[in-house]
């Protein structure tokens, strides 16, 4: 089902392209039949205007064709109402192609004709179009003024086209979204959606079904409210509903909004997918404003990806589209003087006759002027060519110089990188030596126990040997009871010797571990009892902490999984990681102990605890967890705990390399080091290693 949903937008787009081959809305055939039957010229003018409107979002050349035919016929028969409506259709076409100043002038001429003919429907529609011109420039105040004027006409004339009232309501909601007045936007957009769903006349309107536009702007509202999933749903619904209407402009805008939404969310691939679809659809009209926005988005996305060819491609598309637009500042100026220009039209007509007379006089001088301009233009062109060649030579020399500088900088960076690697190795060695020195007290404590046991057992063994000699001196006088005693003494002596061997091996193992830990050469993986290794380093680190702070005590809670068994690891590398984790754990519980001692209220309740847990989590994976009930790590410090030279300890407590180096070591072993903490409660560091089991340990 999910795969079907994922393929649905692509299918709809292909189906839309098939429909676009027809380049007409569902109302077009009926209007063509009516035009073929019409005999009155006035009726033909109005039908031509309506027929051009059916192509408004699918084929602009057809809009131009039918509107121009209607305008010519209307002017020939002196039909002001039809002339105004055809001019309004041409203004719509000019606006869609990006010629906003010309569209405004045409709308103003059409408004005069509508008002002279008392055409309420035409007046309301043209006012709505004028508002759209200012909305395209994000100039919301005059846009709202035009929309409310249009809405007032529809409110007082309920018999007019419902689809155009829906358009006005939707434009009001869209403008309020742009002004971030979301409550007002929701009010008008909900009105538009309710009217669209309940109206029975929208399907017969030559302007088509406005539902794609309403759904798209509802999606824009939901996006502004942060409800992304609802916005995406509305955009997809808008694209689907636009297909039967062949409303390629609405489909283009829906894809454009989807692309912009995915771009804001960082979903670059989805953004590119819908932006390309929007651009392709917009170019078929061409819908210039949509082409500008989608090409700008695609250029920005590919620039961020450093794909220069694609970036240049879409920058050229954007530049070409923007060149067809006028300066927005000029639009605002035209708005201020627009109606004044209408008052000057008559004066201009009077001046036209005088201008025609003067034009004949200026024709000769104009021809000479053109020749002079051609000469000047050729001279200017030659001069620009020379300057361009000189600039190219200068830039070539500059590029060569910069290339040499970049080569030098590259060599310097390589040297600095080698120096940094050397410094890093020295820091690792220094950290290793420092931690090795800190462990000496714990090592001494650990070696002292087997050494003392060896000393005691050796004394007992010596005493047993003397007693054996005395018994053997008796010779033949030995009784069966004496023989049993001798046998028991020999067994005791054998047990003591075994214990002496065990403790000496224990001391030797500790010494070998320290030698491996202090070695600078890379070591190979060795079969290791992971539980014993982790517990040894836990106790070594604990005794080292005790040697530094006599009053320090903590509960050691080893929970060792026998299933871990014997695994192949690099002992001294893993040992360095464990020492760092244990040292941090003991430091944390000591700090909390000192704080609770200072508070005195909770001192008796707090018991420092350090828990060591080992676990085989899978056939090829083991897990070592070190958890303490210390102070935890503050939230603001958690993102930085694995950074080099970062530490929550005082400056004299260490350079802050422990956890950073530990993570590097674990990564070199193919594992992961992760952190779980709650400030004031606990800190848990988990080492996960991918190692196969060699053999499980016997209980």
From TrEMBL:
GO molecular function, one term: protein histidine kinase activity
Record SUPFAM superfamilies: ATPase domain of HSP90 chaperone/DNA topoisomerase II/histidine kinase, TPR-like
Domain of life where this protein originates: Bacteria
Entries under CDD domains matching the protein: HATPase (cd00075)
Transmembrane segments: 362-381
SMART domains in alphabetical order: HATPase_c, TPR
Domain Histidine kinase: 442-693
Signal peptide: 1-23
InterPro entries: HATPase_C_sf, HATPase_dom, His_kinase_dom, Sig_transdc_His_kin-like_C, TPR-like_helical_dom_sf, TPR_rpt
Coiled coil: 389-426
Keyword Coiled coil set for record: yes
Catalytic activity: ATP + protein L-histidine = ADP + protein N-phospho-L-histidine
Enzyme Commission number: 2.7.13.3
Keywords: Coiled coil, Membrane, Signal, Transmembrane, Transmembrane helix
Entry-linked Pfam families: HATPase_c, TPR_12
Protein name as it appears in the record: histidine kinase
């Amino acid at each position: 089902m999910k795969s079907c949903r994922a393929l649905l937008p692509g299918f709809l787009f292909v189906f839309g392209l098939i429909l676009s081959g027809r380049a007409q809305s569902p109302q077009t055939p009926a209007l063509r039949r009516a035009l073929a039957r019409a005999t009155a010229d006035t009726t033909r003018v109005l039908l031509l205007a309506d027929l051009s409107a059916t192509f408004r979002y699918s084929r602009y050349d057809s809009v131009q064709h039918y509107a121009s035919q209607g305008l010519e016929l209307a002017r020939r028969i002196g039909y002001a109402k039809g002339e105004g409506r055809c001019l309004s259709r041409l203004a719509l076409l000019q606006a869609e192609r990006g010629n906003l100043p010309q569209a405004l002038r045409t709308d103003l001429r059409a408004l005069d004709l509508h008002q002279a003919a008392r055409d309420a429907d035409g007046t309301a529609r043209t006012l709505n179009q004028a508002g759209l011109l200012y909305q395209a420039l994000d100039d919301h105040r005059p846009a709202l003024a035009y929309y409310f004027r249009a809405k007032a006409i529809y409110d007082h004339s309920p018999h007019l086209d419902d689809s155009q009232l829906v358009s006005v309501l939707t434009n009001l909601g869209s403008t309020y979204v742009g002004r971030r007045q979301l409550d007002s936007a929701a009010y008008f957009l909900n009105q538009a959606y309710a009217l669209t769903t309940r109206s029975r006349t929208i399907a017969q309107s030559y302007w088509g079904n406005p539902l794609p536009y309403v759904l798209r702007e509802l999606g824009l509202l939901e996006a502004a409210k942060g409800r992304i999933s609802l916005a995406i749903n509305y955009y997809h619904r808008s694209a689907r509903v636009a297909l039967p209407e062949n409303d390629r402009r609405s489909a283009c805008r829906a894809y454009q909004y989807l692309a912009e939404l995915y771009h804001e969310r960082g979903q670059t691939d989805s953004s590119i997918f819908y932006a390309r679809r929007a651009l392709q659809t917009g170019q078929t009209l061409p819908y210039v404003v949509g082409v500008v926005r989608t090409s700008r988005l695609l250029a920005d996305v590919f620039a961020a990806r450093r794909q220069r060819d694609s970036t240049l491609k879409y920058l050229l598309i954007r530049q070409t589209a923007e060149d067809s637009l006028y300066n927005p500042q000029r639009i605002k100026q035209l708005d201020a003087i627009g109606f004044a220009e209408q008052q000057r039209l008559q004066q201009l007509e009077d001046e036209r006759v005088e201008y025609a007379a003067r034009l004949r006089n200026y024709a000769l001088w104009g021809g000479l002027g053109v020749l002079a301009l051609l000469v000047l233009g050729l001279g200017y062109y030659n001069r620009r060519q020379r300057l361009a060649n000189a600039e190219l030579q200068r830039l070539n020399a500059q590029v060569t110089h910069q290339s040499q500088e970049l080569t030098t900088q590259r060599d310097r960076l390589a040297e600095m990188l080698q120096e940094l690697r050397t410094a890093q190795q020295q820091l690792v060695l220094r950290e290793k030596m420092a931690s090795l020195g800190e462990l000496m007290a714990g090592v001494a404590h650990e070696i002292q126990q087997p050494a003392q046991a060896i000393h005691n057992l050796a004394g007992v063994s010596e005493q047993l040997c003397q007693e054996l000699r005395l018994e053997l001196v008796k010779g033949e006088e030995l009784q069966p009871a004496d023989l049993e005693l001798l046998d028991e003494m020999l067994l005791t002596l054998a047990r003591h010797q075994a214990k002496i061997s065990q403790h000496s091996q224990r001391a030797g193992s500790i010494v070998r571990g320290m030698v491996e830990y202090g070695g600078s050469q890379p070591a190979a993986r060795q079969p290791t009892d992971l539980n014993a290794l982790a517990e040894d380093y836990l106790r070594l680190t604990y005794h080292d902490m005790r040697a530094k702070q006599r009053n320090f005590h903590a509960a050691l809670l080893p929970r060792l999984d026998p299933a871990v068994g014997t695994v192949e690891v690099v002992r001294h590398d893993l040992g360095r990681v464990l020492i760092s984790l244990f040292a941090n754990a003991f430091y944390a519980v000591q700090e909390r102990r000192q704080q609770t001692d200072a508070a005195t209220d909770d001192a008796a309740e707090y018991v420092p605890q350090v828990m060591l847990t080992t676990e085989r989590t899978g056939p090829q994976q083991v897990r070592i967890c070190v958890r303490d009930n210390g102070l935890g790590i503050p939230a603001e410090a958690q993102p930085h705990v694995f950074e080099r030279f970062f530490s929550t300890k005082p400056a004299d407590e260490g350079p802050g390399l422990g956890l950073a180096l530990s993570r590097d070591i674990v990564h070199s072993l193919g594992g992961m080091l992760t952190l779980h903490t709650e400030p004031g409660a606990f800190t848990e560091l988990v080492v996960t290693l991918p190692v196969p089991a060699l053999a499980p340990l016997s209980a």
